[in-house]
Amino acid sequence: MAKANLWSVTFSLAVLILCGGKSSLTHAGPNLRSTNELVNHRKGQGRFSPFTSRHSARTPPSPADSQAAAATPKTARSWRTEAETATRERAPSAPSSGPASSPASPQGQNTAMEGGYGAKVYDAVYRWKDYDGETKRLKAILSDHGHPNGKLLDVACGTGQHLSRLRDDYEVEGLELDREMSAIARSRGLTVHEGDMEAFDLARRFDVVTCLFSSIGYMETPARLQKAIARMAAHLEPGGLLVVEPWFAPEQWRDGYVHADYVDDEGLKIARMSVSRTDGPVSVLDLHHMVATSEGVETFVTRHRMGLFADWEYRDAFTAASLTVEHDDQGLMGRGLYVGKVPE
Fold first, then answer.
1. How far apart are CA 324 and CA 334, in angstroms?
2. pLDDT tens track for 193-219
3. Sign of the four-CA dihedral 52, 54, 59, 61
4. 271: left (phi over 0), alpha (psi -120 to 50) or beta
5. Do 170 and 150 contact (CB within 8 A), yes or no?
6. Confidence band (pLDDT; 50, 70, 90) for 116?
7. For residue 271, is pLDDT > 80?
8. How far, in whole angstroms, is CA 57 from its chain's centroid?
9. What are the structural domain ranges in the chain?
10. Element (H, E) at 121
């Protein structure tokens, strides 16, 4: 009897630790929300702005500095998905602050799961995301700018959640780097091209090009940001719109922020945890996953490196691509939105 009670207590403690001791805050039946979204919702925010930052905004460069930045060579491909940001793709660099970086192959990591497994759990992990509300807001913005319909390309379209909600009003296509993500989007009946946002050329133009859910942050450097914006602008018709949802600015980011997502479905349990840090002007998130299905429990780690660009760096990229640009402070989910237009 004593051994049975000891086992019960040990099991309960393990569950409590895995759930962060706060499962009641994030568990709402099968539809679970991310913990940081719950915190920000209570503060009326959709981003990290409730927190103070250790990183000051960069000042605009001189003309000489701008020329030097434009000459910076590309150092890495652009990533959208967890499957393609796997730790094995990048050796970790030493952070400027925050906890020490994880080893390239963390102990206990099942590297065989790094390939396409992140894509398979992507929609479950981001179930809290209000795609319906975001798409409604996006359609209103496009209509306000004279594009209630037409040809639309979504760059870094992921699993096609936005596109599947836009196709009633637009002729939609997507661009996605990750094959697993592309396959999921195509299973929704969508046309998806595989390509890198820095270098793609579809040999045709669109009335609207979008790049949502902060995917632009994967460019990491201002030089690569400008390349991506230029490629997207090159696919626009005269008078066309480029809509980009930014990643966090330097003053919005906080090192050491502990984040977790949980999924508690029948036959599928997911725990995903991370601690934010920076490597110079780049935010770094090592996402530690634990996924349980009827086939067993798998763990894997994916790395996300995303540039913390200042407002003027986004505006400079749009201007360099010969676009006029305006900024919507709220955007689709509280992160703001840049809307650029090609002169007619």
1. 22
2. 999 999 999 999 999 999 999 999 999
3. negative
4. beta
5. yes
6. low
7. yes
8. 21
9. 131-248+309-341
10. helix 117-125
